């Protein structure tokens, strides 16, 4: 029989019902692996959205200690948090320059990623900045046809980086990748001697290795699979565990959860665990949808969610696991069930699973 599963950390407060463990050593190993893969290209780290939900400050400190010195955030406020962690780090702000925001970026020593001629004009010679060209996303960035104008415009203050972003680098055979690489090469010709950056996590793994001067991985650092058609080359960084709050047995014909979306077809043993959609577990992980429901590891074995995910709870079918009992910990995410696996069973993507990790979890950082 399995020993009751316990989170692999020293001490656990008895009152905690759900626990998120972030393995900073695994994180730095992932960064090193990516850096090795694109060497001699420099490897930055994208730490926007609170380091994809894992915590900007501890993540950044660990990466700085591992040798990473360039970071990308989305907003000025995130940039200021990054600056508070390190006075020396190079910090780019992907959202660019909101009207009137230049003094605040400058005061914090942040580098805007300028997305338009208007932004270049406003930044003028306020200091180092990147230029972002849109080669297919149609989201943010200068048009390829504006490269000449941007180069002339910014001559007084040459950009320290030119960059673009892949539309579908996670699909290595998508012809858009080659087209974007080609379009970006034409843009770079306007900026001789200026370092260039194109690759997110998945871009780093493209066969053509369009690594250029600086890579910008985010998702793969945090354990997400940058090569979805193949096994995940990255280490798991997160472990999410929740406690069994109660177990019960129900008879065939009885239902579970809101709207009674699941009905037992045999005598069934259930375990109610202490995490729900308020903690970021998607309602799409419920049973009865067009895909199999999400699972959790109970004493080392996968057990499915039955019924609908509630705000604070999910219910697992633990039939045939008499050892599963009140107070035990089950694993929702970890080495065995990765963010991509949970996402696939919840009708979403791993990025959303990470960035919606709830604020209510007890958080532990290990390996720092
Ligand atoms: C978010 C983002 C990245 C990181 O992408 P991942 O797929 O998470 O590696 C890189 N570059 C830009 C411009 C981004 O917005």
Account of the protein in words:
It is elongated, with a radius of gyration of 23 Å. Mean pLDDT is 94; it is low at 1-6. The strands form 4 sheets. Strands 1, 11, 14, 15, 16, 17, 18 and 19 form an 8-stranded mixed beta sheet that branches. The chain contains 11 helices and 19 strands. β6 (111-114), α6 (117-123) and β7 (130-132) form a beta-alpha-beta unit. Helix content is 25%, strand content 21%. The chain is α/β, with parallel strands linked by helices and 368 residues long. The structure holds pyridoxal-5'-phosphate. The site of pyridoxal-5'-phosphate has 10 residues, from loops.
* Envelope shape: elongated
Question: What string gives the helices and strands in order?
Answer: EHEEHHEHEHEHEHEHEHEEEEEEEEEHHE
Residue-averaged pLDDT: 94
Q: β content, as a range?
A: 15-25%
The helix tally amounts to 11
What is the name of the CATH class of the largest domain?
Answer: Alpha Beta
User: Count of DSSP E strands?
Assistant: 19
Distance between the termini: 34 Å
Share of helix, binned: 25-40%
Q: How would a crystallographer describe the biggest sheet?
A: 8 strands, mixed
Q: What's the CATH H-level homologous superfamily of the largest domain? A: Alanine racemase
Here the CATH topology of the largest domain equals TIM Barrel
The kinds of small molecule bound in this structure are:
pyridoxal-5'-phosphate
* Quaternary organisation of the protein chains: single chain
Structure classification = alpha/beta
CATH architecture of the largest domain: Alpha-Beta Barrel
Low-confidence stretches: 1-6
Number of domains: 2
- Radius of gyration, whole Å: 23 Å
């Amino acid at each position: 029989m399995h020993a009751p599963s316990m989170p692999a950390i020293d001490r656990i407060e008895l009152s905690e019902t759900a626990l998120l463990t972030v393995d900073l050593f695994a994180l730095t190993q992932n960064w090193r692996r990516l850096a090795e893969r694109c060497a001699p290209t420099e490897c930055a780290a994208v730490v926007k959205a609170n380091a994809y939900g894992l915590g900007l400050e501890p993540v950044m400190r660990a990466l700085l200690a591992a040798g990473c010195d360039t970071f990308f955030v989305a907003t000025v406020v995130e940039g200021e948090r990054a600056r508070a962690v390190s006075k020396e780090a190079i910090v780019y702000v992907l959202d660019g320059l909101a009207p009137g925001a230049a003094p605040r970026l400058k005061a914090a020593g942040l580098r805007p990623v300028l997305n338009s001629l208007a932004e270049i004009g406003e930044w003028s010679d306020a200091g180092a900045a990147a230029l972002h060209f849109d080669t297919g996303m149609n989201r943010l960035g200068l048009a390829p046809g504006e490269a000449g104008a941007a180069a002339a415009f910014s001559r007084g203050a040459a950009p320290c980086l030119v960059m673009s972003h892949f539309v579908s680098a996670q699909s290595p055979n998508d012809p858009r990748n080659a087209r974007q690489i080609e379009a970006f090469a034409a843009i770079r010709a306007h900026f001789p001697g200026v370092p260039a950056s194109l690759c997110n996590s998945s871009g780093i793994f493209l066969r053509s290795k369009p690594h250029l001067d600086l890579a910008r991985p985010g998702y793969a650092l945090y354990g997400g699979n940058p090569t979805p058609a193949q096994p995940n080359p990255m280490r798991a960084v997160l472990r999410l565990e929740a406690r069994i709050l109660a177990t019960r047995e129900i008879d065939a014909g009885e239902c579970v959860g809101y709207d009674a979306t699941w009905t037992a077809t045999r005598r069934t043993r259930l375990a109610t665990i202490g995490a729900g959609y308020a903690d970021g577990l998607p309602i799409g992980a419920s049973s009865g949808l067009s895909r199999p429901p999400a699972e959790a590891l109970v004493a080392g074995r996968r057990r499915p969610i039955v019924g609908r995910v509630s705000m604070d709870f999910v219910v697992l079918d633990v039939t045939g696991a008499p050892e599963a009992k009140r107070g035990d910990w089950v694993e929702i995410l970890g080495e065995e069930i990765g963010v991509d696996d949970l996402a696939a069973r919840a009708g979403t993507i791993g990025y959303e699973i990470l960035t919606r990790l709830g604020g209510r979890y007890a958080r532990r950082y290990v390996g720092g």
